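Check these lines:
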Amino acid sequence: MREDPERIPVVVEESYEDIARQVAGCMGGLIRARHDAGEKTVLGLATGSTPIGIYRELIRMHREEGLDFSGVVTFNLDEYYPMSPKSIQSYHRFMWENLFEHVNIERRNVHIPRGDIPRDKIEPHCAEYERAIEDAGGIDFQILGIGQTGHIGFNEPGSSAASRTRLVVLDTITRRVAAGDFFGTENVPTEAITMGVGTIMESREIALLATGEHKAAIVKRAVEGEIHRSVAATYLQQHPNTTMYLDAAAAAELTRRKTPWLLGEIAWTRTLEIEAVVWLAQVTGKSMLKLDDIDYREHHLSGLLSRYEFSGELNGIVFNALGAKIRGRSKLPQGKRIIVFSPHPDDDVISAGGIIRKLHQNKNEIVVAYQTSGNIAVFDHEVRRYLDFVRRTAHDFGYGNEKLKPLLQLVEDFLARKEPGEVDSDAVLMLKRRIREVEALSAIQVLDLRPDQARFLNMPFYQTGLVKKDPIGPRDVEIISDLLEEIRPQIILVAGDLSDPHGTHRMCHDAVIRALERLKGEPPAIWYYRGAWQEWSVAEADILVPLSEEELRRKISAIFKHQSQKDRAPFPGVDEREFWQRIEERNKGTAHLVDQLGLPEYFAMEALVVRGGAAAV
């Protein structure tokens, strides 16, 4: 048995809600114990999407269970610089909107680094922040997230273990990730004030949270890698009371999840057998049918091999299992009722354009349901382009009226005075919504679907005009439920891309699941597609859909119809390539791996995971 490579205690929960409840419960218990002892509780708090669930649970505990915050003192990790506390991107505003104004905390007990002070006052401000933490008796419980550079707070690569609260320059990757909040990387501040690693490490207890596949690689580095200043989170390996809380997606690269057989004996399942054999083939560079007994023994898979008479038997079983996943058009459903749920107006063609066209060719009744308008992901210059088109065609054909000219002028005046990150006017939001809709209609027609097969649900949770969305509410679920009741689908395609940088995919998924729980009768099979940010692995996929060169070209042509997202998407994430470039690489890469494993060679492939339902196959 090999030594456990995890150097930080890790708790893995299946859902983010479970993590939020567990961490909030720890914090609530600490607050109550300190209150009963007549002592204050000092909390270190973080911002961003990761801790919001914790704050919502703390608010619930305050309202329903009487959790008292009058004796709580808080210190936030960081703030952008320069940054007005009134800005929609300000962490001051974030904390008051998401926690402080909903509980009975005293304003004088709230501490957040100032982003609105003159540069020559920053150093004494940081020193005073350190003194305030010391005067409060130190931080009892610190919440942390982890950035894709491995930063904690804004302690970017190169930060020392002894660093204190200070002004730092933000890493390029950090600024790219934050681009969505600022409506463009160019609007993201280049600096921030952050607690130092040394300050964080003096906290008596630390909870580090991470969710989503996009955090999996850096989580593995932080938990299993060597301590190094290039990844500040690795310093936490030296902290005596740190726990990392992960959902299943963020834990996916940990040895215990990805290759548990390397740690000792395990309870083998067919899924684990497939994963192990695919892994072994990749490690050895052999096709599956060429793996021999020595390969298994030399790579800690003797326990698996002992379940079979010889390696050839196991190789054949896995080879056939993977081969059965490959579904050309003739092996896909025919004559079924299908809903394709698309969180944004382009996710359908980006991630499932190939299978949607094949299902259409098989005479299935398909409805593509666009769950949100996607309007915040449209640049202002796209609106100006359409305004110019409307003005010119109105002149050419004489269809202008007394309402058109003032409307155009109103929109142009707003765009001219709009500040970066400012919420759009209702008129601009509507125009951006319509731009996304006409692009979506054009895209599905490339796949041979009709415009009337599209439904634009415009779910209310998205209609904030901001990257930050409202929680999924009853009306959101009702809209999905009404569509399910109307269509009574036998299959639904749902985005499983839970790494979506601004969380819309995750929220749209949750709304569908909640609506399915209300559905009476036989539930549909759920086919999860991915691709915009990640792709299902060959081992975990249930369906592999081959695409010819012409079919991939048509899929890319459909993606091209989303002109407002082309060349430079407003929310690119870390990967700044266009979506069609990412998809081409991933679809071709999946087919290439299938070929390497010894299965038939295809030009490209889409991958899907299937859950439940009578029409699952």
